[in-house]
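Hi team,

As requested, here is the filled-out complex form for the adenosine-5'-diphosphate run. I kept the field names the same as last time so the parser does not choke. Let me know if anything looks off before we queue the next batch.

— J.
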Amino acid sequence: MRYTAQGMKSLGVLTSGGDAPGMNAAVRAVVRSALEHGVEAYGIYEGYQGLVEGGQRIRPLTWDSVSGILHRGGTIIGTARCPAFRTREGRLQAAHNLLAHGIDRLVVIGGDGSLTGAQIFKQEWPELLSELVAGGSIAKALAEAHPQLTIVGLVGSIDNDMAGTDITIGANTALSRIVEAVDAVSSTAASHQRTFVVEVMGRHCGYLALMGAIATGADWVLIPENPPPDGWETIMCDTLRAARQAGRRESIVIVAEGAQDRHGHPISSRYVCEVLERLQQDVRVTILGHVQRGGSPSAFDRYMSTVLGYQAVEQLLSPETAGGESYLIGMRENRVKPVPLMACVAETQALAEALAQRDYERAIAMRSGSFRENLSIFETLARARPRPPTAGQRRLRLAVLNASAPAPGMNTATRAAVRLALDQGHRVIGVRHGFEGLIEGHFEELYWMSVEGWVWPGGSELGTNRQIPTGKELYAIARQLETGAIDALLMIGGWTGYESVYSLYQHRDHYPAFNIPMICLPASINNNLPGSEFSIGADTALNSIVLVVDKIKQSAVASRRAFVVEVMGRYCGYLALLSGLATGAERVYLHEEGVTLRDLQEDVNNLIAGFRQGKRLGLMIRNENANAVYSTGFMHALFEEEGGELFSVRQAILGHLQQGGNPSPFDRIQATRLAASCVNFLLEQAVQGKPEAAFIGLERGQVRVHQMEEFPRMIEAKLQRPKEQWWLALRPIARIMAQAGPSRS
Ligand code: ADP
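And here is what came back:
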């Protein structure tokens, strides 16, 4: 969508309240999108303080001034808490200062306090202007030229505590900091058989604590929305003691800073520690504090904030928005969605009110859809041992295998599936080494403690490979399923895993043993599986790429250099495009778009023009299969030759580092959630004697199951990728952020 600026020349952008990683990406996107529209972008430094002070605190931001900031935490335009802006006097001064630059449109990036302040300012604007005219400090004509203030808000808050958006800028990064810290603490705790109480941020919101607990396999979590029952101290101690007796070496309790009991009394991490000491245990408290706010933003926070910043400008410049209702640009169901700002602020306050009134049911109901589900999954996974089967219950035998290349998060998914099935009274058979193991009958029963500690390591503990069974191997599998008395099959893996399950499904007429429920859980760094917008492992790979590219960029700064970085993905450009967005690459080569000689000629011209004008760094990201002829080596040689004395070129083929590493919190959480849905699906089918074969995924934020027969219809078989790829819609944004061409990148 394109809007003309309609006589408007400038907009302002400010960051306010607590800083959050990703704010810089949003500011950069706002500035570049505005410039793209021919609109001047002013940075308002130090939040509302800058608005009230004016002068040098309000100054234009150029394309270049927001270069090289994507990887930086915090906010380069500063933030502050500003008591003066809470007063009408302060806001009068702010209006005056904005008009001095002809600004009547603002992008405010902050928490609910900042956005409330923005809305008050907007409502008062006409009166403030009348007052300024009456006082003679501005001309009537100037006031008439800016009758309304238009506001668009983005939520910058690490707590993920705002209604109207499923996730806020900074929350993903904060969760990464927490998970890194808890992983680290867990290893030392395990060595000494210690207990750690870890306090995380979240005064009114348990998001970070709960997700952190799921992602780290913690033993106990205390959050404001779900106060424990009276006498919880004993229950907690009993649970931790039982886990130790079952063989767990460490205990981790995560406490949100706003945790409270059912009577509204705060539960401090110190108090939890005292309670646990009664167990005669060696207990330590770690308060993570501001570490959670700091550091380089995750890949997700970089690209999401970029997309939000872009959309904020589109919304701000839309004729429908001008002077009208203020909007918050949020993420809903994995899509950008504008929602009326005031309704979000009101809902956020209503939730805080529900907590204050100890109406916890309502508070949880007001949290996003998966909150309750996640809470219940956590409660099961954290048990010391499974609930015993009920008397007379049919105990099904569920087989679990990993297939295709290893993807970070496979172990997390396997652990969750094993425990959730055991907890429902069933038995789980692990299959070693993918379909090869299924052919050869490498079965091993898995128990609650067999998967202890599997929440965090990358790779595949069960073992995996890419074999797709054919011919006699199918017969062998049928025999193994029969002799192993397998009632249902869960495949956690990528493309070859899907093809294998599809093959079993197709051969049901020949082999009755294949008439059992089967389901595929998407786990592949390539994110190339049908029926899921994300596959497990892709977020981790993206973060690994971004981390390395940050380093590559740093290495190049001193010398005029361009890099061609090759990333994985097979024929799917997800990793290339998203890492391009997250690192500020100026060019991304995708198989989906193809590469032509004319493109390359243009890229050479742009590089030359850019370096002539003083550019010091060029970054091109190429999907490994973008074009068979114009390979990474070819591009490297071409740019090097054409760059001559002006710049040098290096290639970096990132290779297998992209498949390694411990899963990101996002991958761990989604792996757990999907595994829970897979187990429910398989058990339901098996109990009802229905042998449906299916693949599961996340679509628009929801878990969805597709029947296996849909598989061929949803894929481009030769290219091993889905027909529909949601992220292709982000290409224009990547182009705008980078396009500016050589002189400005
Ligand atoms: P956050 O935006 O992270 O919730 P705060 O609540 O501290 O952070 O708000 C940040 C700033 O926003 C405040 O210092 C103040 O300048 C402004 N602000 C917050 N609430 C209001 C309000 N009700 N009226 C005017 N300004 C406000």
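Two things worth flagging: Residues 308 and 537 are 24 Å apart (CA to CA). Residues 539-661 form a domain with the Rossmann fold fold (CATH 3.40.50.460).

Thanks,
J.
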